[in-house]
Amino acid sequence: MSSTDSTPNYHLASAHVRYSTWSVRVFILLNYYASLPNAPFTFTSTFYNLGRDIPLPTPSGLVPALTVPINALHHSSPTSDTTGETTVTDSLAIIELLHELHPELNVYPSHPLLRAHARVAAAEMHSGFSMIRSLCPGNYWAWYPNFNTSLSAEDKANIAKDLARIVKVWEGARKLTEELAAKGEVHDDGWLFGTFGAADAMFMPVLWRIRSYELPAPWEERAKKWAAKMWSEERTSLVTVMADELAREETVEQKYDDMVPGREMLPKDWKFEV
Ligand SMILES: N[C@@H](CCC(=O)N[C@@H](CS)C(=O)NCC(=O)O)C(=O)O
């Protein structure tokens, strides 16, 4: 990472990402961009133990929360008072702010059609898929190989409905991006909307849940290819994102580990087969 005196430094208040589906969205984006050559910002983080570190020291009492220097917000139109810093909460609001602060990163794509669909995808993830979220709590080193057999028929049907829509969103994103790339209108690195951005980060937690809980996703080819990329690329892989937590026993919360019966540990070398 390279930085200069004018490179802004942000601070992320986060839960340990192994249990926090909201925090990981922001953490993965910050991590990805801060590791780029000529990264436009640096960041530090404080990780809290949910349920133990109460109250969380953020305006909403929730994490994630990102603290940014006020002069970074005013970079294009300085006002009289740009001293100090401010804290922004809510994962989607933080992602929108990163897009505004660093348009060159394409947190949302620069192509208007792709950008519209990337925003829909991020927003749909933010407010939707309630069955998977409530029945499959985030616990990303965990593996529940027999989870499906323990579900009621009703829960299975509800999860199947969420999975069908999720795969359609991923497949649709990749198809549209490929079509625009074939016409030379966008650059495509294989992420949902071409370059790594908001939609990839927003969907990372449900992708992990599909793996952890062995959920029967009705895979389509492009969606599966994206999942495999997300899972195995160095900067977005589970092992990279949680390297620190893997080594630190104090990040484990028994309460969350015991929430769903039948827990085993995810084999670290597991990969999506495409
Ligand atoms: N809509 C918010 C939700 C944030 C949220 O609910 N965060 C949880 C952690 S994942 C939290 O801070 N819980 C506080 C606690 O459990 O004490 C977002 O997207 O940031």
TrEMBL record:
Source species, domain of life: Eukaryota
Identification of the protein by name: GST C-terminal domain-containing protein
Lineage summary: Eukaryota, Fungi, Dikarya, Ascomycota, Pezizomycotina
